[in-house]
Amino acid sequence: MQRYDAVLNYKQEDADWSRDMRGKELVTPVDLQRWVIVFTRKNSAMAQDLVQTLSKVGPPMGMRIAQPTPCEIPDDRNDSYLSALRQQVQQDTQMALCILPTNRKDRYDAIKNSAVLITQLKGLMVVGIDTYHDSAKKGRSVGGIVCSMNRNLTRYYSSTTFQMQTQELVDGACIKLRGALEKYHEVNGALPERIIVFRDGVGDGQLQAVHEHEIPQMIDCFKKAGGTEYSPKVGVVVVKKRINTRFFASLNRGQLGNPPPGTIIDTEVTKPEWYDFFLVSQSVRQGTVTPTHYNVVWDTTGLKPDHMQRLTYKMCHLYYNWPGTIRVPAPCQYAHKLAFLVGQSIHRDPSPALADRLYFL
């Protein structure tokens, strides 16, 4: 990893650069100038320690962190937190941080609900799609859709769609994808030349439905968004995490161990009629590492299998909530977090004003 003339070295086999990143400047740091911290009187010392720690670790990373607007509340009732947020959060507030004394779900849901309401490929958009069951309404699912907005694949535009068991996800997703393409055009001045969709939450029995129903509608949606002459190159990759397959690497003296992160298996154990591969993207300290299975069910991108596999692995490095690699490409995990938040806590479409913010992390 390199930033200008600085080189970051880390042990690739550990797939974790949290220790090595300490004191290193970020590629695109963002100053935190306008933020609010809400805490109870009991947690005031903890809040002060947190602010001091952030002030120390921010500058070496290239971030200037200003003093927050402190808001001490008398108790930990949900209404106290919500009232403080309504009073303190302004239009230009960058972040509101609440220190919670316990991990009660109802308090977390109330705060999140309040917050929600208030190597490069040229011209590439990466899309993550995942679903989660809505806990408030039986038979209804939430689809999370997250699309990249810039060349570095670090800015995202998100939306949700709801569907009953008798409906197809793509029926509502097409409208959201068209909105994402319009936003991409607004940001970049042009529509993407390639669109790669990582589709999570699909079982083997649903692959035919995805191929025959979802993909044609998705491609038609892309063309409608850009006009009759717009015909992007499209790849659709089904991501499967819940598998029983395990792989082992031969180590010194014939011993077996986990394969190193970045290991690709695309022969022998893959199906000849599929364009699929297994990727080991993580490192584990105990037990056996679980690979992720990728099935490329549609591909007109022109990318070689090696390039598709490399892109998939690189996307596993770009999840903001973890200083290392994760099991799936970052847009997939973002889509899961979004669908989980809406299905568990919000139960309705979030505010469109938050679409270009990763508020669900």
UniProtKB/TrEMBL annotation:
Molecular function GO terms recorded: nucleic acid binding
Location of the Piwi domain: 125-347
SUPFAM superfamilies assigned: Ribonuclease H-like (SSF53098)
InterPro entries in the record: Piwi, RNaseH-like_sf, RNaseH_sf
CDD domains (alphabetical): Piwi_piwi-like_Euk
Gene3D superfamilies, A to Z: 3.40.50.2300, Ribonuclease H-like superfamily/Ribonuclease H
Name of the protein this chain belongs to: Piwi domain-containing protein
